[in-house]
Amino acid sequence: MSKVNKVTDSNVAEFIQSPITILQFSAEWCGPCRMLGPIIEELATENTDIAIGKMNVDENSQAVKYGIRGIPTIIFFKNGEVADKIVGVKSKAELQAKINELKG
Hints:
With 104 residues, the chain is of the alpha/beta class. The protein is 31% helix and 27% strand. The protein has three helices and five strands; from the N terminus they run βαβαβββα. The longest helix has 16 residues, at 31-46. It is globular. The N and C termini lie far apart (29 Å).
């Protein structure tokens, strides 16, 4: 069972209100997105105190609201506000470092 939440247009506003949220914007056809998927799953398993989700840009128009121009894009939210944005595939260590920074 995946610990990564499926985020859609209808639940994104509520989802990002967690104290710390990571939201990956991706698409089924995107090779780099598929490479990032297992890393995001591992982070979700190891960081149960934060909200981690994935939004399919082909199925959800809200991605435009967040300025998504390339995928995969990961946006880090803190208390509903954008704290950082990463475009492209990054290592698990790089992403965990960003999570640790947000946890303070």
